Every structure is written in C-alpha cells, then in structure tokens.
Amino acid sequence: MELSMGKLNPKQVENLTEPGTYEDGEGLRLVVKASGRKSWVLRFQLNGKRREMGLGGFPDVGLKSARLAAAEQRKLLSTGIDPMAARDAERERQRASEQAAVARAVTFNTVATDYIAAHRAGWRNAKHAQQWENTLATYAEPVIGHLPTSEVSTAHVLEILQPIWTEKTETANRLRNRIELILDAAKARGLREGENPARWRGHLDKLLPKRSKVQARTHHSALPWSDLPAFMVDLAKHSELTYKAMRLTILTACRTSEVLGAAWEEIDLETSTWTIPAQRMKAGKEHRVPLSDAALEVLSSLPRIMGSPYLFPSTRQGKHLSNMAMLMGLRRIGREDLTMHGFRSTFRDWAAERTPYPREVCEMALAHKVADGAEAAYWRGDIFEKRRSLMADWAQYATTPPAENVIHGDFKRA
C-alpha cells in the first residue's frame, strides 16, 4: 500500500507493519519489508535518470532525521551535485582518514619488530636476527623508532646514516638496507605511500658518497672491528705502561678516564670484577666491570708502586698517567688516525654485527643508560653474568691473532 497524499507522522512510522512503500513527500519514502525491517529511501532524478538513495533504517533514523537528510540531498541536487557520488566521496575521505590514523599509531619500531618476527624463521640463524635488532636499536631507533612509518623522510634517513657513513661504512650500508626493507613492508601493509626514502639507486646515491670511495679512506677515529685483532698483536709488542693501559681500555670497553684513574682497591681478583665508584663515572652511578682472562693478564703484568693507589701511576708523586698518555701512545706507533674513545665504537659495532647479545647487554657494558623504572630493574637482575660472557667473547676475538681466523684449505687445480 502507498500513501500518495499527505505526509507520514511519527506514530504512523512506528506502527506500520504491512510490507510496502509509504511516501512522505518530495521523494522521501519509508520502505517496509516482509521481515519487518524499515528503511528510508530518497527517490530523485538526475540527468534524466531516476535513482534511489538509502538514508538509513528506522528506528536508528527517525522521521525528523530522515526529512533533514533528504533536504540536505535535495540541496546538493539543486546545485548540480550528485548526492550519491558526494556520499561515496565522503565515505572514502573518512576511510582514508581512519587509515591514516591507524598508520600514525604504528611506529617504525613496531613495523621493524613485526618484520623481524615474520622473517626470523627464514634467516640462517638466530644471530642474524639479533644483528638486525642491535643495529636498528643502536642507530635507527633514537631517530625514527617512535615515528609512524608514514612520517619517515629522507632527512631522517640521512640523520641516521651520515654520522657513520664514512666511519662505519659497512655497518651503515647494512643499516640502510634494513631500513629500506622495513619501510617497503610498511608500504605493503598500507601504512605509508610514495617512494622509499632509504632507497639507494636514484636517490641516496645522489646524497651520499659511494661506498667504494669512503671505504678506501684510511683516516678514521674508530678502528673497524675487523682490524682489531691485528692492532692488538701490534700493541702487545710494546711493554710500556701506557700501552698496557691501552690494552686494558680496549678489553674492558671503558672510557680512558675510568682506566687511567683505576685504583687497586677497585679490583677484586677473586671475583674477576672491577668496581668503578659512582664519583668516577660519567653517569654518577657505580659501574661493575667483568674482567676477562685477557684483562686479568694485563693486570698481573702491572707493577705495584709503593705509595701509589693507581694501576697506572705517573712519575709525578700521587698522580696517575695523564689523559693525553694514550693519545700520545697512538701517535708514537703511527696511529694518529685513531682515538682511544673510538675503541668503544669498535666494540659496539662488533657486538651489533657479530654477536647475538641483546642491545641492553651491550649498552650496559658501555655504562650507558638503557631504561627507566621496572624495565631497568629487570635488566639489572642477571645482566652482569651476561656482560661477563660478552666481555669474554670480546677478549677472545680481540686477542686471537688474525692468522688463526683464516680458513685454510687445499686449493690446488684439478
């Protein structure tokens, strides 16, 4: 049944149960289905074609709301706008807005974690996954870890890569590739659009020097970790106190000031532990250093000077070696290109690239702050034994002559 005259009223709308189409006027009608479902429809004509547009179901949309909605659509028609096309465009805008909100909520760290988890099973070993996590945590996370992947730009990528591109070229290139893969994954998930800011060809190759050019450079403040064993062999040829201080600095990954100011009372040979008091630490907190066998060997070679509390006493009464002693030692052996502080970077790069140790273990070995509150308490729990293992591995690597790392074989021609 159709009501062709008059308009509907709220009570009628509520009580109508017989299936049919009930006109309210000016194209607005209420459609009642056999199931009892009621819905509002606006019939209109556009470009000579009759069309129907749904305005929602009753009772979610009451009579008054339906009339207001119909009036809005008729207003659009009066200006030549297709109300159905306008509604579809608005829905698409809303969908894009919601998708953008989702993308903003998903950070680079989240996508990186998901990427590693998805590919871990296909990588050759757990160590490879740990290397990914370590390099990203060390270099990328401080700059873009908290950012939505949609906001990561070329400027961000350059901020990450430029400080290490000429000093740690191999690490930087691997890092660039990892960032590129993670951002590609984000794009595949609909979390970002456009070109990848970490891509090399046609993009970063125009902004950064070629690897072949920078890798040929020899003047670096930090020694590449791959060159460390040979350097330690050369260092061991010198028996002067300064060079022993340099060896202990490298083996413990401590700051030069911490080593030069070390006192015998800080060393516990029974537990192979060196406890640096808070007042001598940069962060103002006591720091325990696990001593490897190689570090203990250096300590056992040191003379104990009567009246001096220091491991590395100066010829001046009551003083330790000066802060310039190790730098001058490097110069005397022709390594003006290096700084002793750079060996902390050497250690960090080796740990990130060649070991499966968590980032927190490596950072705490360097006496860096890694967390706050409960997380920090967790890492303080059993971290020291993990650090002991890390420093033992570091010492083993550093003191193993390069020749013993070569794989020998019979390569005779057939």
UniProtKB/TrEMBL annotation:
<dbReference type="GO" id="GO:0015074">
    <property type="term" value="P:DNA integration"/>
</dbReference>
<protein>
    <submittedName>
        <fullName>Site-specific integrase</fullName>
    </submittedName>
</protein>
<dbReference type="InterPro" id="IPR044068">
    <property type="entry name" value="CB"/>
</dbReference>
<dbReference type="Pfam" id="PF22022">
    <property type="entry name" value="Phage_int_M"/>
</dbReference>
<dbReference type="InterPro" id="IPR053876">
    <property type="entry name" value="Phage_int_M"/>
</dbReference>
<dbReference type="InterPro" id="IPR038488">
    <property type="entry name" value="Integrase_DNA-bd_sf"/>
</dbReference>
<comment type="similarity">
    <text>Belongs to the 'phage' integrase family.</text>
</comment>
<dbReference type="InterPro" id="IPR013762">
    <property type="entry name" value="Integrase-like_cat_sf"/>
</dbReference>
<feature type="domain" description="Core-binding (CB)">
    <location>
        <begin position="106"/>
        <end position="187"/>
    </location>
</feature>
<dbReference type="GO" id="GO:0003677">
    <property type="term" value="F:DNA binding"/>
</dbReference>
<dbReference type="InterPro" id="IPR010998">
    <property type="entry name" value="Integrase_recombinase_N"/>
</dbReference>
<dbReference type="InterPro" id="IPR011010">
    <property type="entry name" value="DNA_brk_join_enz"/>
</dbReference>
<dbReference type="GO" id="GO:0006310">
    <property type="term" value="P:DNA recombination"/>
</dbReference>
<keyword id="KW-0238">DNA-binding</keyword>
<dbReference type="InterPro" id="IPR050808">
    <property type="entry name" value="Phage_Integrase"/>
</dbReference>
<dbReference type="InterPro" id="IPR025166">
    <property type="entry name" value="Integrase_DNA_bind_dom"/>
</dbReference>
<keyword id="KW-0229">DNA integration</keyword>
<dbReference type="Pfam" id="PF13356">
    <property type="entry name" value="Arm-DNA-bind_3"/>
</dbReference>
<dbReference type="Pfam" id="PF00589">
    <property type="entry name" value="Phage_integrase"/>
</dbReference>
<feature type="region of interest" description="Disordered">
    <location>
        <begin position="1"/>
        <end position="20"/>
    </location>
</feature>
<keyword id="KW-0233">DNA recombination</keyword>
<dbReference type="InterPro" id="IPR002104">
    <property type="entry name" value="Integrase_catalytic"/>
</dbReference>
<feature type="domain" description="Tyr recombinase">
    <location>
        <begin position="218"/>
        <end position="391"/>
    </location>
</feature>
